[in-house]
Amino acid sequence: MKYSYEVVKYDKNVLGRVLMQHKPGKLCDTDIHWHEELEFVYMIDGVLNANISGKNIQISNNEFYFCNSEEIHFTSTPDKERVIKYIVVLMSYDYLRPYFPQLEHMQFEIKDSHKPKIKELINKLIDIKESDLNFKELLLNSVLLEIYHYLLEYCVTKKENIYPKNIPENFVYAKKAIEYIGKNYKENITLKDIANLVGLTPTYFSKYFKTITEVSFIKYLNGIRLDYALMDIIYSNETVTNAAINNGFANVKSFIECCKNIYGCTPIEYKKKRSYEIANKK
């Protein structure tokens, strides 16, 4: 069972991250993860299962789910071959802090009465993303600001426990370590560094971390580096060398060996496979 802290990269000049997804279900399954951003996922065509803080939900056409900041969740699809289409809207938690100082002690609750308005606003985002309009970033920001305002005006409630019931009680140490790795994976991180961060001895932390994540600390760290490096190669056309060095690997050889160990192929071979899957959407 893999856990990860996701560092969201924002679109340039946009007050959030707005992603249109159109791909086979098998590419929509995610590991257990969390991030600081608030998240809406709205289904346009298809079905998606989600587990949010231990609660299972399913969304189909014209339905959405919502995750609070740092709420643990993962997704899966019932039909791995069907191509599904949906939009992901990630809202900056940092952006809201200056407007609502009590935010750390609060969360957002989306009631049934709120859903029509939120659907209306998300559909505006979809129309903008799929349009050929000029200055789309400005239009996206205008709608995102409406969503920010609506959340603060109507959806704020007292923060409750957002940890799933099946997460171990001592997960707090792992969560802190995983968040640190997620934010600093490009740096030279050692087991001793992380153990000191969470206040445990290196030996105890090593055993504890493997119990929680089911992999060793170094394998987990390199897995995170690998994921980001492969994304750079696939979506940013980075060279293998740049992807390795820019994402924390000591050298290209260690990057290639890590990819072979986890995916059974080289980074270039992995790129060809994923590019084919995405292009064919089958």
What labels describe this entry?
282 residues; 11 strands; four-stranded antiparallel β-sheet; 44% helix; three-stranded antiparallel β-sheet; alpha+beta
How would you describe this structure to a colleague?
By secondary structure, this protein is α+β, with helices and mostly antiparallel strands. The chain has helices at residues 93-96, 115-129, 136-154, 171-184, 191-198, 202-213, 217-235, 240-246, 252-263, 267-280; strands at residues 3-5, 16-24, 32-34, 38-45, 48-52, 55-59, 64-67, 73-76, 83-91, 106-108, 156-158. The strands form four sheets. It has a four-stranded antiparallel β-sheet, with helices on one face. Strands 6-5-8 form a three-stranded antiparallel β-sheet, with no helix packed on it. The protein has a two-stranded parallel ribbon with strand order 1-3. Strand 5 (48-52) and strand 6 (55-59) form a beta hairpin. Helix 5 (191-198) packs across helix 6 and helix 7 crosses helix 8. It is globular, with a radius of gyration of 20 Å. The two termini are 26 Å apart. 25% of the residues are buried.
Strand and helix map with partners:
Blueprint (H helix, E strand, L loop, with lengths): L2 E3 L10 E9 L7 E3 L3 E8 L2 E5 L2 E5 L4 E4 L5 E4 L6 E9 L1 H4 L9 E3 L6 H15 L6 H19 L1 E3 L12 H14 L6 H8 L3 H12 L3 H19 L4 H7 L5 H12 L3 H14 L2
Parallel strand pairs: 1-3
Antiparallel strand pairs: 2-9, 4-7, 4-9, 5-6, 5-8, 10-11
Helix pairs in contact: 2-3, 4-5, 5-6, 7-8, 7-9
